[in-house]
Amino acid sequence: MTEAIAVERDDYLVHPFTSRARRVMTRGNTRSTLFVPPAPPYAVKGEGAIVTDQLGHEVIDCNNNYTSLIHGHGQPEVIEAVTPLMMQGTAFGLPTQTEISLAELLVARTGHERWRFSNSGTEAVMAAIRAARAFTGRDVIIRFEGSYHGTSDAVVSVNAPGITAGVRSDVIEVPQGDREAFDAAVTWAGNTLAAVLIDLMPNRAGLVPADPAFVDHIRETTRRVDALMIVDEVITLRMATNGLAGAYGVEPDLISAGKIIGGGFPVGAVGGHADVLAVFDPMAGSSVGWGGTFSANPISMTAGRIAMELFDEQAIAALNTRGDVLRGTLTEAGVAVTGSGSLIRIREQLDLGELWWAAYERGVMLGMNGLLALSTPMTDSHIQTIERAVAEAVRALRGRTNT
User: Fold this and answer.
1) In this structure, are strands 171-174 and 114-118 parallel, antiparallel, or unpaired?
2) Confidence (pLDDT) at 30
3) Which CATH architecture best describes the domain 76-310?
4) Deepest in the core among 170, 185, 291, 386, taking most CB within 10 A?
5) In whole angstroms, how far apart are CA 360 and each of 5, 71, 118, 349?
6) Which of 368, 366, 363 is nearest to 352 (CA)?
7) 38 upstream amide cis, omega within 30 of 0
8) pLDDT for 2 beyond 60
9) Does residue 403 register a pLDDT over 60?
């Protein structure tokens, strides 16, 4: 990184980008997760672990597009692989062999025998829920409070604006880890229960790993009542070659994936048992129709395959170790953190917008929820800077709170 440029948040509020954006988008925003008041910086360049904004301020990217950029920005082998494809065609009304190659890699890596691609993690979860309902012939989904599974109606809070009574009748939310509440929900649903959807270390809920005994109980229960278990691995697939479910030793019927399997391009996927995903068989009499204009486009498929090949077992272990070390040093510095491996959440009782700016001004970009997602180009120097910036930001805000 070059010498840090001092910035003030009001510099971004008065920048022309902000006024232009607010003339054409509500509050100048199109992704809720990226809005930071009074106005967010705009990225103009990314290289490795570094992002530069419109004022020339450089930051270490610990957001990494909310965990998707496992190799940071501009990974050379990914760029080399996709650049010639731009001249050959970016999307077709025909399948290409690129989706075969990525599916083959995912089968070998995860053990899930069939795959189907989409454009985002949201779509992947939607497809998994549709598959579960079609396979079981049932309607009800149990999911866990505070977990984020995208933005479709079935997976946001049942009390969120715009959610209908029909959706609320088909979805049951229970606290994660609450066995009594879970068992009561299963009993209430009875033979209408299609599936249980769980994230084993939900980011929105604080990156607290699920209790293995509770996860085993879900698996045993779903088998007993002939419902499916869906594990959302959109974020946690980075934790091990076969995802966090593999690390837990549990075999779900379906998983949703995304983020790192696109190599920096839009992607989603659902994987699982062949008999369950057979509901999408176009030759079957009453198959589930599921399109997607840019699903399995050759750019995303190729970038994803290269990124996943580079993120092998050795790379996963190295990045998880970096995360464990950073989490340990932050804890020693008195910062409350949770998570596992390369994913960390700051759990201080502080204003998250203020925390974001305090870290950004010190050269580190977090997620707006206090997330740090590490990437492979990060060096020891980057990790040291992250630890120092986060610790200083937390101390500064604590001091402001206590005065």
Assistant:
1) unpaired
2) 93
3) 3-Layer(aba) Sandwich (3.40)
4) 386
5) 11, 21, 33, 18
6) 368
7) yes
8) no
9) no
1 falls in which pLDDT band (50, 70, 90)? low
How is the beta sheet containing 58-61 ordered, strand by strand? 43-47, 50-53, 58-61, 364-365
What pLDDT, on the 0 to 100 scale, is given for residue 5? 66
| CB contact set of 223 (below 8 Å; sequence gap of 6+) | none
User: What gap in Å lies between CA 262 and CA 308, rounded to an integer?
Assistant: 9
- What is the value of pTM for the model shown? 0.94
- SS3 at position 44: strand
Q: How far apart are CA 86 and CA 315, in angstroms?
A: 29
Per the listing, tokens 């699982």 go with 272
List the catalytic residues: 148, 232, 259
Helical segments of 333-379, H only: 352-361
The mean pLDDT value of the chain amounts to 95
What are 24-69's pLDDT values in tens digits? 999 999 999 899 999 999 999 999 999 999 999 999 999 999 999 9
Structure tokens at 275: 């008999």
Residues 6 or more apart whose CB falls under 8 angstroms from that of 66 comprise 33, 235, 259, 367, 371, 373
Q: Report helix, strand or coil for 22.
A: helix
Where are the domains positioned within the chain?
9-70+313-402, 76-310
**pLDDT, tens digit (0-9, with 9 covering 90-100), for 339-374:** 999 999 999 999 999 999 999 999 999 999 999 999
- Residue (of 225, 213, 196, 209) closest to 250 by Cα position: 213
* CATH 3.90.1150.10 is held by the domain 9-70+313-402: yes
